[in-house]
Structure formats: C-alpha cells, structure tokens
Amino acid sequence: MKNLKTLIELFNSLEEYFLTIVGDGEEKESLVKMAKSNIIFKEPIENKKLKDEFLDNDIFILPSMIEPWGLVIEEALYFGLPVIVSQSCGSVALIKNGVNGYIFDPKDSKNLKDIIINVDAKRYDELLAGVKEFFIDDKDRNQISSYI
C-alpha cells in the first residue's frame, strides 16, 4: 500500500540521490535487503523528534497506492518541506502542483523519476517559496467553514 518497493527501486537507479525511510512494518526486512547504500532506514521516532527528521531532509515523498489522507504531508509542509505525493492520497488536495510540491501517478515510476531529477537548485528554491505560502491555519479554517 505504501509503494515503498517502487520508491526503493527508483532510488537504486539514482545512486547519487539519497532516500531516508522512517518507520517499521512487515516488509521492512525485504526492503532493506533490496536497497542500495544510498537508502537509509531509520526506526520509528517520537512525535517530538519529527521536526529534526524533516529538517534533515530536502523533500518528502509519499508514494502510496492508497492513502485516505496522509497527515505526514501536512507535517512536511508545516516544517517547510516541499512534497512529492501520489495522486491516490487524500492530502493531495493541499498540493499546488509545481508550486509547493508535485503530484504523480503511483503506477508511473518514470514520471516520479523525472520529477526528482528535474528539481535543480533554482526549482528547489521556487518550491520552498511555494511551501512558505502554505498556512496550516488557513487550511483548517477552510475545512471547518465547509461544514458551516
């Protein structure tokens, strides 16, 4: 469901890029075995340490095949990270494609690869500026007002 095998296969072909995977699950052992040295696995972390993990990385990728929401996208944006999110995630509603991140088809790893390799320093700065436009309070107010 999280589509990590596809993400690992992609980063195995992009050895000059680094990927950090945080968490645990029943597939972890097989995923670790298939990963090259540019892919780092970390144990689950406490919520109070999330900020440090986000700040140690440049872009957050959520490649899930199915994800009802994906709160982690809100967290990444809150901590200033551009995101690359599967169109199958509910939190895709928070993304302005090409502004604060990118939206991709989780079945199209070539498209995901193209997105990743086309984020150069200039494009990254533009994405960071787009993330700064994301205000979690505005999103919450809009969500609440939809029920009134």
Describe the protein in words.
The chain has a single domain, classed as Rossmann fold, CATH 3.40.50.2000. The strands form two sheets. The chain has a three-stranded parallel β-sheet, sandwiched between helices. A two-stranded parallel ribbon has the order 1-2. The chain has seven helices and five strands, in the order H-E-H-E-H-E-H-E-E-H-H-H. 41% of the residues lie in helices and 13% in strands. By secondary structure, the protein is α/β, with parallel strands linked by helices. Helix 4 links the parallel strand 3 and strand 4. The radius of gyration is 15 Å and the shape is globular. The mean pLDDT is 93. The protein starts with a helix and ends with a helix.
Offer a few descriptive terms.
single chain; Rossmann fold; globular; two-stranded parallel ribbon; 148 residues; 3-stranded parallel beta sheet; alpha/beta
What gyration radius follows from the Cα positions, in whole Å? Answer: 15 Å
Q: Report the oligomer.
A: single chain
Q: Report on the biggest sheet.
A: 3 strands, parallel
Which CATH class? Alpha Beta
Question: Into which percentage range does the β-strand content fall?
Answer: 5-15%
Shape: globular
| CATH superfamily annotation | Glycogen Phosphorylase B
Work out the count of structural domains: 1
Contiguous low-pLDDT stretches (5 residues minimum) are none
Per CATH, which architecture? 3-Layer(aba) Sandwich
Mean pLDDT level: 93
SSE string, helices as H and strands as E: HEHEHEHEEHHH
Number of helices: 7
CATH topology heading: Rossmann fold
Numbering strands along the chain, what is their spatial order in the largest sheet?
3-4-5
How many β-strand runs?
5
By secondary-structure content and strand pairing, the structural class works out as: alpha/beta
Helix content: 40-55%
Terminal CA distance reads: 34 Å
